[in-house]
Write the C-alpha coordinates for this entry.
Amino acid sequence: MSSRMRHASCPEESQARAVLFGANTQGAGFSESARGKSDAPRKLFTADVVRDADNESPSLTELLEDGASLFDAGNLPVEGLAANEQLAVVHARFVELFRAGQRAIGVGGDHFIKYAALSAVSEVFEDCAVLYVDAHPDCAQNEALGFDSILHHAWKLPHIRPERTCIFGVRQVNARERDGLRAWRPGVVAATELVERGLPAVLEMMAAQLGDVRRVFVSVDLDGLAPHEVPAVEAPYPGGPTFRELLVLLRGLARRYELVGMDVSEFIPELDTARLTALVTARLVKEFAALPAPR
Ligand SMILES: [Mn+2]
Protein backbone atom coordinates (compact mmCIF):
# COMPACT_ATOMS: atom_id res chain seq x y z
CA MET A 1 0.00 0.00 0.00
CA SER A 2 1.32 3.41 -0.86
CA SER A 3 0.78 6.62 1.04
CA ARG A 4 -0.30 9.91 -0.46
CA MET A 5 1.16 13.37 0.01
CA ARG A 6 -1.55 15.22 1.93
CA HIS A 7 -0.44 18.55 0.45
CA ALA A 8 -1.65 17.24 -2.93
CA SER A 9 -5.30 17.96 -2.18
CA CYS A 10 -6.79 17.84 -5.68
CA PRO A 11 -9.40 15.06 -5.39
CA GLU A 12 -9.44 13.91 -9.03
CA GLU A 13 -6.57 13.39 -11.43
CA SER A 14 -8.63 14.76 -14.31
CA GLN A 15 -9.02 18.12 -12.51
CA ALA A 16 -5.34 18.48 -11.59
CA ARG A 17 -2.92 20.92 -13.18
CA ALA A 18 0.01 18.81 -11.93
CA VAL A 19 0.18 15.07 -11.19
CA LEU A 20 2.72 13.40 -8.90
CA PHE A 21 3.60 9.73 -9.18
CA GLY A 22 6.31 7.48 -7.75
CA ALA A 23 8.28 5.03 -9.90
CA ASN A 24 10.94 3.10 -8.05
CA THR A 25 12.94 2.17 -11.13
CA GLN A 26 16.01 0.02 -10.49
CA GLY A 27 18.89 -1.35 -12.50
CA ALA A 28 20.62 1.63 -14.11
CA GLY A 29 23.61 1.03 -11.83
CA PHE A 30 25.56 3.39 -9.60
CA SER A 31 28.71 5.42 -9.98
CA GLU A 32 31.88 4.61 -8.10
CA SER A 33 31.77 6.73 -5.01
CA ALA A 34 32.85 7.03 -1.42
CA ARG A 35 30.02 4.64 -0.60
CA GLY A 36 31.56 1.94 -2.76
CA LYS A 37 30.34 0.34 -5.94
CA SER A 38 27.16 -1.65 -5.50
CA ASP A 39 24.38 -3.01 -7.65
CA ALA A 40 22.30 -4.05 -4.68
CA PRO A 41 18.67 -2.94 -5.01
CA ARG A 42 17.45 -0.39 -2.52
CA LYS A 43 14.99 -1.56 0.08
CA LEU A 44 12.79 1.48 0.54
CA PHE A 45 10.39 3.12 -1.84
CA THR A 46 11.71 6.62 -2.28
CA ALA A 47 8.46 8.37 -3.15
CA ASP A 48 6.72 7.05 -0.02
CA VAL A 49 9.58 8.30 2.17
CA VAL A 50 9.22 11.72 0.55
CA ARG A 51 5.46 11.70 1.15
CA ASP A 52 5.88 10.61 4.79
CA ALA A 53 8.45 13.35 5.46
CA ASP A 54 6.18 15.99 3.96
CA ASN A 55 3.12 14.72 5.81
CA GLU A 56 5.07 14.92 9.08
CA SER A 57 6.44 18.41 8.33
CA PRO A 58 3.68 19.93 6.18
CA SER A 59 3.93 23.38 4.66
CA LEU A 60 2.38 25.53 2.00
CA THR A 61 4.78 26.67 -0.72
CA GLU A 62 7.03 29.65 -0.02
CA LEU A 63 4.46 31.87 -1.79
CA LEU A 64 1.74 30.45 0.49
CA GLU A 65 0.02 28.32 -2.14
CA ASP A 66 -1.76 25.12 -1.18
CA GLY A 67 -1.75 21.93 -3.23
CA ALA A 68 -5.31 22.17 -4.58
CA SER A 69 -4.10 21.83 -8.17
CA LEU A 70 -1.79 18.87 -7.44
CA PHE A 71 -3.00 15.25 -7.51
CA ASP A 72 -0.96 12.41 -6.02
CA ALA A 73 -1.48 9.35 -8.20
CA GLY A 74 0.49 6.96 -5.99
CA ASN A 75 3.16 4.62 -7.33
CA LEU A 76 3.59 2.84 -10.62
CA PRO A 77 4.00 -0.95 -10.35
CA VAL A 78 7.56 -1.28 -11.65
CA GLU A 79 9.22 -3.35 -8.95
CA GLY A 80 10.45 -6.72 -10.17
CA LEU A 81 10.05 -5.80 -13.86
CA ALA A 82 12.88 -6.11 -16.38
CA ALA A 83 14.55 -2.86 -17.39
CA ASN A 84 12.71 -2.51 -20.71
CA GLU A 85 9.37 -3.19 -18.99
CA GLN A 86 10.08 -0.56 -16.31
CA LEU A 87 10.98 1.93 -19.03
CA ALA A 88 7.76 1.15 -20.92
CA VAL A 89 5.51 1.62 -17.87
CA VAL A 90 7.08 4.93 -16.83
CA HIS A 91 7.27 6.18 -20.43
CA ALA A 92 3.54 5.47 -20.92
CA ARG A 93 2.60 7.39 -17.76
CA PHE A 94 4.58 10.47 -18.78
CA VAL A 95 3.07 10.30 -22.30
CA GLU A 96 -0.45 10.06 -20.87
CA LEU A 97 0.02 13.14 -18.67
CA PHE A 98 1.78 15.18 -21.36
CA ARG A 99 -1.06 14.44 -23.80
CA ALA A 100 -3.61 15.47 -21.15
CA GLY A 101 -1.80 18.81 -20.81
CA GLN A 102 -0.92 18.13 -17.18
CA ARG A 103 2.45 18.83 -15.56
CA ALA A 104 3.92 15.37 -14.88
CA ILE A 105 6.11 14.92 -11.79
CA GLY A 106 7.77 11.50 -11.41
CA VAL A 107 9.78 10.63 -8.31
CA GLY A 108 12.22 7.72 -8.78
CA GLY A 109 13.85 5.44 -8.52
CA ASP A 110 17.17 5.48 -10.25
CA HIS A 111 18.34 6.93 -13.59
CA PHE A 112 15.99 4.72 -15.63
CA ILE A 113 13.18 7.17 -14.77
CA LYS A 114 15.14 9.86 -16.62
CA TYR A 115 15.37 7.93 -19.87
CA ALA A 116 11.71 6.91 -19.63
CA ALA A 117 10.73 10.56 -19.12
CA LEU A 118 12.93 11.90 -21.92
CA SER A 119 11.69 9.28 -24.38
CA ALA A 120 8.13 10.37 -23.52
CA VAL A 121 9.09 14.02 -24.05
CA SER A 122 10.49 13.10 -27.47
CA GLU A 123 7.35 11.20 -28.38
CA VAL A 124 4.87 13.94 -27.45
CA PHE A 125 6.71 17.22 -28.06
CA GLU A 126 8.78 18.36 -31.01
CA ASP A 127 9.88 21.59 -29.33
CA CYS A 128 10.87 20.74 -25.77
CA ALA A 129 14.25 21.59 -24.25
CA VAL A 130 15.77 19.80 -21.25
CA LEU A 131 17.20 21.26 -18.05
CA TYR A 132 19.31 18.44 -16.59
CA VAL A 133 20.36 19.10 -13.00
CA ASP A 134 23.26 16.80 -12.13
CA ALA A 135 26.80 16.79 -10.74
CA HIS A 136 27.57 14.43 -13.63
CA PRO A 137 26.94 14.88 -17.37
CA ASP A 138 25.69 11.26 -17.88
CA CYS A 139 26.88 11.27 -21.50
CA ALA A 140 29.42 8.44 -21.67
CA GLN A 141 29.13 6.90 -25.13
CA ASN A 142 28.24 3.43 -23.89
CA GLU A 143 26.18 1.01 -25.93
CA ALA A 144 24.18 -0.06 -22.88
CA LEU A 145 21.76 2.32 -21.19
CA GLY A 146 23.03 3.02 -17.66
CA PHE A 147 23.39 5.75 -15.07
CA ASP A 148 26.30 7.42 -16.91
CA SER A 149 24.90 7.20 -20.46
CA ILE A 150 21.33 8.52 -20.10
CA LEU A 151 21.89 11.67 -22.14
CA HIS A 152 24.02 9.89 -24.75
CA HIS A 153 21.01 7.69 -25.46
CA ALA A 154 18.42 10.45 -25.04
CA TRP A 155 20.18 12.61 -27.65
CA LYS A 156 19.63 9.82 -30.19
CA LEU A 157 15.85 10.22 -29.76
CA PRO A 158 14.12 12.23 -32.51
CA HIS A 159 13.28 15.35 -30.48
CA ILE A 160 15.81 15.48 -27.64
CA ARG A 161 18.81 17.48 -28.78
CA PRO A 162 22.13 18.45 -27.18
CA GLU A 163 21.71 22.00 -28.55
CA ARG A 164 18.46 22.22 -26.56
CA THR A 165 19.90 20.75 -23.35
CA CYS A 166 21.36 22.62 -20.39
CA ILE A 167 23.24 20.49 -17.85
CA PHE A 168 23.31 22.47 -14.61
CA GLY A 169 25.61 21.85 -11.65
CA VAL A 170 28.15 19.62 -13.41
CA ARG A 171 31.34 19.27 -11.39
CA GLN A 172 32.41 15.59 -11.33
CA VAL A 173 33.29 14.32 -14.80
CA ASN A 174 35.28 11.25 -15.81
CA ALA A 175 37.27 10.91 -19.04
CA ARG A 176 34.53 8.95 -20.82
CA GLU A 177 31.97 11.62 -20.01
CA ARG A 178 34.39 14.32 -21.15
CA ASP A 179 34.60 12.52 -24.51
CA GLY A 180 30.80 12.49 -24.61
CA LEU A 181 30.63 16.22 -23.84
CA ARG A 182 33.12 16.95 -26.64
CA ALA A 183 31.23 14.77 -29.12
CA TRP A 184 27.69 16.01 -28.32
CA ARG A 185 28.47 19.61 -27.22
CA PRO A 186 25.44 20.23 -24.95
CA GLY A 187 24.97 23.41 -22.94
CA VAL A 188 26.66 23.29 -19.54
CA VAL A 189 26.26 25.69 -16.62
CA ALA A 190 28.52 25.15 -13.61
CA ALA A 191 27.27 26.15 -10.17
CA THR A 192 30.31 28.42 -9.83
CA GLU A 193 28.76 30.62 -12.56
CA LEU A 194 26.18 31.61 -9.93
CA VAL A 195 28.99 33.19 -7.91
CA GLU A 196 30.97 34.58 -10.81
CA ARG A 197 28.13 36.04 -12.91
CA GLY A 198 25.16 36.18 -10.58
CA LEU A 199 21.83 34.46 -10.86
CA PRO A 200 20.10 36.72 -13.43
CA ALA A 201 23.01 36.23 -15.84
CA VAL A 202 22.91 32.47 -15.26
CA LEU A 203 19.21 32.46 -16.16
CA GLU A 204 20.08 34.17 -19.46
CA MET A 205 22.85 31.61 -20.06
CA MET A 206 20.40 28.78 -19.47
CA ALA A 207 17.82 30.31 -21.79
CA ALA A 208 20.44 30.62 -24.53
CA GLN A 209 21.37 26.95 -24.12
CA LEU A 210 17.75 25.76 -24.01
CA GLY A 211 17.19 27.54 -27.29
CA ASP A 212 14.15 28.85 -29.11
CA VAL A 213 11.53 26.48 -27.71
CA ARG A 214 8.15 26.82 -26.00
CA ARG A 215 8.57 24.00 -23.52
CA VAL A 216 11.10 22.71 -21.02
CA PHE A 217 11.32 19.40 -19.17
CA VAL A 218 13.35 19.34 -15.93
CA SER A 219 15.33 16.23 -14.97
CA VAL A 220 16.82 16.32 -11.47
CA ASP A 221 19.49 13.98 -10.16
CA LEU A 222 19.54 14.98 -6.50
CA ASP A 223 23.35 14.77 -6.44
CA GLY A 224 23.31 17.86 -8.65
CA LEU A 225 22.35 19.96 -5.63
CA ALA A 226 24.70 20.90 -2.80
CA PRO A 227 25.29 17.83 -0.62
CA HIS A 228 24.98 19.75 2.65
CA GLU A 229 21.29 20.12 1.78
CA VAL A 230 20.85 16.85 -0.10
CA PRO A 231 23.19 14.34 1.54
CA ALA A 232 21.37 11.06 0.87
CA VAL A 233 22.62 10.31 -2.63
CA GLU A 234 24.98 7.66 -4.00
CA ALA A 235 27.65 10.07 -5.21
CA PRO A 236 27.66 13.28 -3.15
CA TYR A 237 30.15 15.82 -4.46
CA PRO A 238 30.83 19.29 -3.06
CA GLY A 239 30.00 22.59 -4.67
CA GLY A 240 26.54 22.24 -6.16
CA PRO A 241 23.78 24.84 -6.36
CA THR A 242 21.53 25.21 -3.34
CA PHE A 243 17.83 24.39 -3.40
CA ARG A 244 16.93 28.07 -3.20
CA GLU A 245 19.12 28.88 -6.21
CA LEU A 246 17.44 26.12 -8.21
CA LEU A 247 14.01 27.37 -7.15
CA VAL A 248 14.75 30.94 -8.24
CA LEU A 249 16.01 29.66 -11.61
CA LEU A 250 12.90 27.49 -12.04
CA ARG A 251 10.69 30.50 -11.32
CA GLY A 252 12.60 32.43 -13.97
CA LEU A 253 12.22 29.62 -16.49
CA ALA A 254 8.48 29.32 -15.70
CA ARG A 255 8.02 32.95 -16.80
CA ARG A 256 9.43 32.07 -20.24
CA TYR A 257 8.60 28.42 -20.88
CA GLU A 258 5.82 25.94 -20.29
CA LEU A 259 7.38 23.54 -17.78
CA VAL A 260 5.83 20.26 -18.91
CA GLY A 261 7.20 18.03 -16.20
CA MET A 262 10.01 16.87 -13.97
CA ASP A 263 11.67 13.70 -12.78
CA VAL A 264 13.65 13.39 -9.55
CA SER A 265 16.01 10.49 -8.98
CA GLU A 266 18.80 8.98 -6.88
CA PHE A 267 17.46 9.61 -3.38
CA ILE A 268 18.64 6.85 -1.02
CA PRO A 269 16.40 6.91 2.07
CA GLU A 270 18.69 4.69 4.16
CA LEU A 271 21.29 7.47 4.12
CA ASP A 272 18.88 10.30 4.99
CA THR A 273 19.41 10.41 8.75
CA ALA A 274 18.20 14.02 9.19
CA ARG A 275 15.44 13.62 6.52
CA LEU A 276 16.88 16.63 4.71
CA THR A 277 16.93 14.92 1.34
CA ALA A 278 13.30 13.82 1.69
CA LEU A 279 12.25 17.34 2.65
CA VAL A 280 14.17 18.94 -0.22
CA THR A 281 12.55 16.48 -2.64
CA ALA A 282 9.07 17.13 -1.22
CA ARG A 283 9.60 20.87 -1.37
CA LEU A 284 10.90 20.64 -4.94
CA VAL A 285 7.77 18.70 -5.94
CA LYS A 286 5.42 21.19 -4.26
CA GLU A 287 7.16 24.33 -5.54
CA PHE A 288 7.49 22.89 -9.07
CA ALA A 289 3.82 21.90 -9.14
CA ALA A 290 2.81 25.43 -8.14
CA LEU A 291 4.94 27.29 -10.73
CA PRO A 292 2.63 29.35 -12.95
CA ALA A 293 2.31 28.99 -16.71
CA PRO A 294 3.99 31.74 -18.75
CA ARG A 295 1.73 34.71 -19.58
MN1 LIG B 1 24.60 12.37 -10.91
Q: What stands out?
A: The pocket of manganese (II) ion is lined by residues 134-136, 221, 223, 235 (CB under 6 Å). The domain at 13-290 is CATH 3.40.800.10 (Arginase; Chain A).
